[in-house]
Write a structure and sequence with these properties.
Order of helices and strands: EHEHEHEHEHEHHEHH
Largest sheet: 7 strands, parallel
Mean pLDDT: 89
CATH architecture: 3-Layer(aba) Sandwich
Radius of gyration: 18 Å
Number of helices: 9
CATH topology: Rossmann fold
Distance between the termini: 53 Å
Strand content: 15-25%
Shape: globular
Low-confidence stretches: none
Length: 261
Amino acid sequence: MAHAIITGASSGLGERFAYALAGQKRNLVLIARREDRLRAVAARARQLGTEQVEIIAADLARPGAALEIEARLAQASIEVDHLINNAGFGTTGRFDRLPLEREIEQVELNVTALMVMTRLFLPAMLARGRGTIINVASTAAFQPIPYMATYAATKAFVLSFTEAIASECAGTGVRILALCPGPVRTEFQAVARHENALMPSFAYLDPDTVVRQALAAVARGRRVQINGLMNAAGALAARLFPRSLVTAIAGRIYRNAGSTG
C-alpha cells in the first residue's frame, strides 16, 4: 500500500505536512530522531484520518541511515508515492567560530540525506509513472547569507538540485517541487539561534498556510514555490541587484542573530 514519507516529522513543517496528508487519508511514514514526538504526531494523524502510520526514529545525518530506511520499507513492502524531504537545521554565527562537527552534520542532513532519499525513492515513482517529491529549501537559497553561510549554501544546493531533477522528470507523471518558505514560526529559530535577527514579525509565515500552498503548488506542477509576496520580491531582488549588495544586506540582518548581549 502506498505511503507518504515525511522526514523531520516530529515538529514544524514536517508535523504540519503529516496532519495535512492525514486529512487526505494518506498512509504515512514519519521519520525523525525523537521517537516520543513521532508517536504523538502519529496519534494525531490517526485521529485526522490516516489508516497506517509507520514511525522510524533515525538520525538522517548519520551516514547510511537513509539506506537502512529504504531497506526497512522494502522489506515491509511499503510503496512510497510521496516523499517530503523536510529534515534540516541551520546554524548562526561567524563561520570560523562555529563548531566544525555541527557544520558537517548540517551539510550531511540538509544536502546529503536529501539527495540520497530522493535517489532511493525516485526510480520506483518513475517506473509507476506517478509520484510527488517536495524538497524543503528556503528563501536563503537565493543569496549568500553571512553569519548563516553553511545553511544558505545547503539550501542553494537544494533549490538547484530540485529544479534540475524536476526538469529531467518532466512529462513522467512525477512532480517535484522546491519549497522556499522564508521564515516560519517553528522550532527552527531556536535551533539556529537567530531570534535576534533583524527580521520583522510580519515576515514570519504560518506553517499550516505554507504546507497548504506547497501541496497546491506541486499538484499544479510547479517546480518552485516561494511563500509570501515579500519573500517572492526578495528572491527576485536577489537575482536583479548586485550580488555584493544583496550579501551585505543579508549580513546586516543576521550579524547579531543568536547573540545574548
